[in-house]
Write a structure and sequence with these properties.
The chain is an alpha+beta fold. Helices cover 36% and strands 28% of the residues. It is globular and about 40 Å long.
């Protein structure tokens, strides 16, 4: 199975590492990063493991809680041969807004 990373995922990952390094410790930031990457690696074997998010657009987005950091969610899409990793965010975010909903239409 092929894994594709969206640019926003890399931004989220860097932001998460920076936040944890500053507000917790560099060691916790390193472990969090490793957990994110291990979770993605696990998806290559069980791509439908995450919960289908019918509240988000497009409707095929899935989310998966990080096992050791349950306040963080990994968002992705998958088909028969590809996993598309979209975002990694803290669970208290406004997810519809992150995925393009709730924006005012263009004039």
């Amino acid at each position: 199975m092929k894994t594709v990373f969206r640019p926003q995922f890399w931004v989220d990952l860097a932001d998460g590492v920076a936040y944890l390094a500053e507000n917790a410790s560099p060691e916790i930031a390193r472990r969090w990063h490793a957990e994110v990457m291990a979770t993605i690696s696990g998806l290559e074997h069980w791509p439908s493991l995450g919960r289908l998010r019918r509240d988000l657009t497009p409707s095929d987005i899935r989310s998966l809680v990080l096992p050791r950091y349950p306040r963080y969610l990994l968002f992705y899409r998958c088909d028969a041969d590809t996993i598309e990793v979209l975002r990694i965010k803290h669970g208290m975010m406004d997810f519809p807004r992150l995925f393009g909903e709730g924006k005012a239409p263009p004039p």
